[in-house]
């Protein structure tokens, strides 16, 4: 019995050490697992946002092409109504699929910003579909879509933890000239 009592502190030390090692390993592995899950979902979110951006920008560009004859100084190549309508139909399918991914994976602020951008581009699309009667404030609609796009990019970057840089689109001066360093 005396022999067991002398070995008891050593056994307790081994037991405490084993429990401590198991606890530390569990905490470390949980942290590693959470980080890997975060990276995995961030990658999926980034892919969803990029796909959504491409789909919305396609609708935006096709709509601007259809409307370019009604925008003095427009640099967007003109697109006839028939070709534009077919391209809008194709782009709408891609847009719908990518929108679902944003809804599933996006944080609340990014989904709100995406919805705002989506509505602004839908307004341009509706204007293009209603030709030959162009809207009164076409330039205002384009500006609203551009600003909504910037808002989406800011929200998406914030949600993904991307820092630095501006997302604002290049705005051409009203007179249509690109400023140079000499001016």
How would you explain this protein's 3D organization?
This is Secreted protein. It comes from Micromonospora lupini str. Lupac 08. With 183 residues, the protein is mostly helical. The protein has a domain at 40-160: Four Helix Bundle (Hemerythrin (Met), subunit A) (Up-down Bundle). Helix content is 74%, strand content 0%. The chain has helices at 2-67, 81-105, 108-129, 138-160. Helix 1 (2-67) packs antiparallel against helix 2 (81-105) and helix 1 packs parallel to helix 3. The longest helix has 66 residues, at 2-67. The chain is rod-shaped and about 105 Å long. It starts with a helix and ends in a 23-residue tail after the last helix. Residues 178-183 have low confidence and may be disordered.
Could you outline the blueprint of secondary structure elements for this entry?
Elements: H1 2-67, H2 81-105, H3 108-129, H4 138-160
Helix pairs in contact: 1-2, 1-3, 1-4, 2-3, 3-4
What best-fitting shape do the alpha-carbon axes yield?
Answer: rod-shaped
Distance between the termini: 98 Å
Mean pLDDT across every amino acid position:
85
Main β-sheet description = none
Could you tell me the strand content as a percent range?
under 5%
The proportion of residues forming helix, as a percent range, comes to over 70%
Number of helices: 4
Per CATH, the architecture of the domain at 40-160 is: Up-down Bundle
State the CATH class of the domain at 40-160. Mainly Alpha
Q: What is CATH's topology name of the domain at 40-160?
A: Four Helix Bundle (Hemerythrin (Met), subunit A)
Radius of gyration over all CA atoms, rounded? 28 Å
Low-confidence stretches at least 5 residues in length (pLDDT < 50)? 178-183
The H/E string reads HHHH
Structural class, judged by helices and strands? mainly alpha
According to DSSP, the number of beta strands is 0
Protein name: Secreted protein
């Amino acid at each position: 019995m005396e022999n067991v009592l002398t070995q008891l502190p050593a056994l307790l030390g081994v037991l405490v050490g084993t429990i401590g090692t198991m606890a530390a390993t569990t905490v470390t592995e949980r942290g590693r697992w959470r980080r890997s899950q975060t990276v995995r979902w961030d990658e999926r979110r980034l892919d969803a946002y990029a796909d959504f951006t491409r789909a919305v920008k396609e609708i935006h560009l096709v709509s601007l092409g259809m409307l370019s004859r009604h925008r003095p100084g427009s640099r967007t190549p003109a697109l006839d109504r028939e070709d534009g309508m077919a391209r809008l139909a194709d782009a709408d399918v891609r847009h719908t699929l990518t929108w679902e991914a944003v809804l599933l994976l996006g944080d609340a602020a990014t989904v709100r910003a995406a919805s705002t951008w989506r509505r602004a581009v839908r307004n341009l699309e509706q204007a293009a579909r209603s030709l030959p009667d162009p809207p009164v404030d076409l330039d205002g609609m384009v500006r609203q879509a551009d600003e909504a796009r910037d808002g989406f990019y800011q929200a998406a970057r914030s949600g993904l933890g991307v820092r630095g840089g501006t997302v604002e689109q290049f705005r051409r001066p009203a007179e249509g000239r690109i400023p140079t360093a000499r001016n």
